[in-house]
């Protein structure tokens, strides 16, 4: 998650997936001609939000806070994807030297859904900072299990996130408190001085920053078997044997 994206970008992305998340295609009333003429219109924002909530199995606790359900389609999809990734990792252990996995944080290692729904799916960097400071986000259980299994089997675990360097210490504390293993390395987007391995400096796109950092990890001798992220920009640019896209219909980060 990055402070640079806006609720407008999120809603535009959500509209793009609104026709397929949870309840299927959004119906448009009227004749066939009217339907065809309106087929390029964005989805209704209210319906998109309802579809996203349905996908996560939204429920509200006594304090009025939103949560996702362990029986939701989100959890089922995540379990299936991570299970497939784990099998691939298992099969790779005997043939890959110095295996490693790279994990994004927001909506990969941690799930931000409850906080997103509490904030009506809008982004406020001040509120995000408060959530990080307070340890509001919860571990993504299948990813947590994968990370610990990997560490127990000699696989190096790295975190690579779009959170900025000033959010690093508290982010790592939260991940440790949630039960994630101590990482071989953790990378946060630079705000003051960029490392030499990022020639794009402080102006890197997400793809440049993340692929360049993965290249740096591999330059140390590690071989990245799995690269897990919820955004396509987490995965593009190579330097991983298998990119693993996790579901996230809430926002889009280029």
Automatic annotation (TrEMBL):
Keyword tags: Signal
Cited Pfam families: Acid_phosphat_B
Leader peptide range in chain numbering: 1-27
PANTHER family assigned: ACID PHOSPHATASE-LIKE PROTEIN
Protein name as annotated: HAD family acid phosphatase
Source organism of this protein record: Amycolatopsis plumensis
């Amino acid at each position: 998650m990055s402070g640079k994206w806006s609720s407008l970008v999120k809603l535009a992305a959500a509209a793009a997936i609104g026709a397929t998340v949870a309840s299927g295609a959004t119906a448009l009333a009227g004749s066939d001609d009217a339907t065809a003429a309106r087929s390029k219109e964005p989805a209704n924002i209210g319906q998109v939000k309802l579809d996203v909530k349905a996908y996560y199995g939204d429920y509200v606790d006594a304090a009025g806070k939103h949560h996702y359900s362990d029986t939701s389609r989100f959890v089922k999809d995540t379990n299936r994807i991570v299970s497939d990734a784990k099998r691939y990792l298992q099969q790779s252990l005997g043939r890959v030297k110095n295996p490693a996995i790279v994990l994004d944080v927001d909506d990969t290692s941690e799930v931000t859904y409850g906080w997103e729904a509490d904030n009506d799916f809008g982004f406020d960097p001040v509120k995000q900072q408060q959530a990080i400071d307070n340890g509001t986000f919860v571990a993504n259980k299948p990813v947590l299990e994968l990370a610990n299994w990997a560490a127990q089997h000699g696989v190096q675990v790295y975190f690579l996130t779009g959170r900025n360097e000033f959010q690093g210490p508290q982010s790592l504390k939260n991940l440790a408190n949630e039960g994630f293993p101590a990482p071989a390395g953790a990378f946060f987007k630079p705000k003051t001085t960029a490392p030499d391995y990022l020639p794009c400096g402080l102006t890197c796109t997400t793809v440049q920053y993340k692929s360049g950092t993965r290249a740096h990890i591999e330059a140390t001798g590690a071989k990245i078997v799995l690269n897990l992220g919820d955004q396509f920009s987490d995965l593009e640019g190579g330097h991983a044997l298998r990119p693993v896209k996790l579901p996230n219909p809430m926002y889009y980060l280029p």
